[in-house]
């Protein structure tokens, strides 16, 4: 298995590329603002063929490069259905402080969706590039917020936690569409039951492991 990650954009978001091996098909996870150049470098360096993009949620720092990537590679995008509107209207999920960043990058606040968008229903599986990806619905940061889980034979369960869970922290709930009560429920009913051995690859910051977070993350002491 191969996982490549790089930090992009004004929000320092983690974009990931997942493949079974060098030279194989790849999944692009959360292709946010500013992802295109480093993504192309990663694909070239590892001789990868992109097969699809998957989004943990619809915020622009996680999906803002998807349209350009879809045009370059003609691949589908898998988006949680409750966040799909954010692909074209990003400010509906952002605070006013983000307006200059969006305008400076795109010249508009009204964007065009990627060419092919697959609506991901809560708690469903989708096969992309040979991976069985489970989209685990965990609202609170956004209505459609999800964690994307798969199991590797060698490394065990791995989850792209997006902006649900970070190392020592969680995603904010004070943006439009955020819901503190929903986040509390997600942490208690969805995040906490994850096996301790689960490797956590978040949308911002460094990676962690579920068992460690249960011990030290103050937001998991429910």
Automatic annotation (TrEMBL):
Keyword Hydrolase part of the UniProt annotation: yes
Keyword terms, alphabetized: Hydrolase, Metal-binding, Zinc
One Pfam family linked to the record: Lactamase_B
One example GO MF annotation: hydrolase activity
SMART domains membership: Lactamase_B (SM00849)
Cofactor: Zn(2+)
Residue intervals of the Metallo-beta-lactamase domain: 12-204
InterPro entries assigned: MBL_Glyoxalase_II, Metallo-B-lactamas, RibonucZ/Hydroxyglut_hydro
Record Gene3D superfamilies: Ribonuclease Z/Hydroxyacylglutathione hydrolase-like
Top-rank lineage group of the source organism: Bacteria
PANTHER family: HYDROXYACYLGLUTATHIONE HYDROLASE GLOC
Name assigned to this protein: Beta-lactamase
């Amino acid at each position: 298995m191969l996982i490549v990650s790089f930090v992009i954009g004004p929000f320092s978001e983690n974009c990931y590329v997942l493949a079974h091996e060098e030279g194989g098909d790849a999944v692009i996870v959360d292709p946010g603002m500013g992802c295109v150049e480093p993504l192309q470098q990663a694909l070239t360096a590892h001789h990868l063929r992109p097969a699809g993009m998957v989004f943990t949620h619809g915020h622009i720092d996680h999906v803002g490069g998807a349209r350009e990537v879809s045009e370059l590679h003609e691949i589908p995008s898998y988006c949680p259905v409750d966040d799909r509107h954010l692909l074209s209207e990003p400010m509906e999920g952002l605070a006013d402080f983000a307006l200059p960043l969006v305008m400076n990058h795109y010249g508009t606040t009204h964007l065009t969706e990627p060419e092919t968008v697959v609506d991901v229903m809560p708690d469903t599986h989708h096969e992309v590039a040979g991976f069985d990806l489970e989209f685990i619905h965990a609202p609170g940061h956004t209505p459609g917020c999800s964690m994307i889980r798969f199991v590797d034979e060698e490394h065990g369960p791995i989850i792209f936690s997006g902006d649900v869970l970070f190392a020592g922290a969680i995603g904010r709930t004070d943006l439009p569409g955020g819901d503190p009560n929903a986040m509390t429920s997600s942490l208690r009913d969805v995040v906490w039951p994850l096996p301790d051995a689960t490797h956590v690859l978040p949308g911002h910051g460094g990676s962690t492991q579920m068992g460690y977070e249960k011990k030290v993350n103050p937001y998991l002491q429910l």
